[in-house]
Task: inverse folding
């Protein structure tokens, strides 16, 4: 898979382990000639991955909503810029452009992006999966909730069809190879 959409935190006020893992991912993406497709922000894990990917020769595509531009929060690392009207537009463009979606730790926006991809896959709009990079067990509660949805029959089919989990960097790179 060469085009990887990234969903993750835009916060700089998070545990340094997440920044370290984001930079490790970005460096790997650059070294392996992967395209990073992400929200285009110059903050948080978004900028950490983009900067590391760019340093190692990777291509960086930002899907930038107008509000980000208005606030002067667009990364200077972008090789390609798609302008998005809003967050819904951004999700659709990222989904269209990428082969796989990768979720690093993040907040409400990341959850929105993950659920958008999974929900649209469940009704057949695409066959793409989300890979949860489960740094320090960050996604454990969501993964348990997915199991609960299945047990309580709120999922019509196994949700594991729509996602994979990588608990280590080695597992992640195997899934992205």
Result:
């Amino acid at each position: 898979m060469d085009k990887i959409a990234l969903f993750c935190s835009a916060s700089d006020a998070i545990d340094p382990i997440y920044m370290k893992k984001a930079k490790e991912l970005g460096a790997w993406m650059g070294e392996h000639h992967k395209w990073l497709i992400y929200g285009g922000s110059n903050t948080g894990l978004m900028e950490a991955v983009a900067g590391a990917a760019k340093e190692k020769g990777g291509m960086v595509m930002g899907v930038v909503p107008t509000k980000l531009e208005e606030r002067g929060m667009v990364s200077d690392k972008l090789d390609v810029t798609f302008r998005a009207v809003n967050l819904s537009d951004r999700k659709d463009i990222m989904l269209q452009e990428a082969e796989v979606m990768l979720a690093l730790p993040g907040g409400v926006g990341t959850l929105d992006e993950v659920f958008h991809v999974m929900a649209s896959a469940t009704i057949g709009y695409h066959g793409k999966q989300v890979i949860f990079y489960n740094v320090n067990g960050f996604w454990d509660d969501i993964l348990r909730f997915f199991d609960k949805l299945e047990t309580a029959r709120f999922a019509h089919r196994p949700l594991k069809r729509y996602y994979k989990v990588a608990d280590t960097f080695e597992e992640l790179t195997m899934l992205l190879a």
Notes: The mean pLDDT is 97. The radius of gyration is 15 Å. The first helix runs from residue 16 to 31.
